[in-house]
Amino acid sequence: MNTLTSTVGNSLNRVWQGLAEGWKQLRERASHAMTHFTPLARKDDIETWNDRIMRLGSRWGVLASDVEENNDSIIVHLEAPGMEAEDFDISVVDNYLLVRGVKQSKREHKEGSYHVLECAYGRFERAIPLPVEVEESKARARYKRGVLTVTLPKSARGRRRYIEIKSD
User: Within 10 Å of residue 37's Cβ, how many Cβ atoms?
Assistant: First the structure.
């Protein structure tokens, strides 16, 4: 009976640890996609009701990304609709692609008010982990149809080398 209790206890412990690790990984992956937007300051001192809603409204947005790897490069696709190429500042720091920018609100309201504000505006920063070392000086970036695509050539150390196997 003691052995059975011990076996069941050990099995439950392993299941619990696996479940906890799964939740931890899910939380980490989700937190990478969430991006905090810092509201921009107004040019005048008068704050309207709509300004207050925008200031207190959504400050988090999802800038979803895909990171793909081929033999020669790492390609990062970042969804960032409603922006222009000039709105981005891109760099590589350590093994991260750092994307900074400003998403401007281009709305002009003469009348009416907001009831729901889910779109995030302001300054943002997103750090995307890179799986291998890259040559940042040879990187290329393009912004088209709301998607920023950054192509980063792998460094010599980051490239896969095939080793030929000889038989005797």
Answer: 21
Query: Residue 154, Cβ neighbours under 10 Å: how many?
Result: 21
* Residue 44 structure tokens: 């005048």
CATH-assigned architecture of domain 37-153: Sandwich (2.60)
Q: What is the tens place of the pLDDT at every residue in 35-72?
A: 665 665 555 555 565 555 555 554 556 788 999 999 99
From CA 104, how far away is CA 122, in angstroms rounded?
A: 6
CA 120 – CA 105 distance, rounded (Å): 9
Q: Which two tokens stand for residue 162?
A: 């095939």
CA 12 to chain centre: 35
| pLDDT, tens digit, 9 for 90 and up, residues 72-102 | 999 999 998 888 999 999 999 989 999 998 8
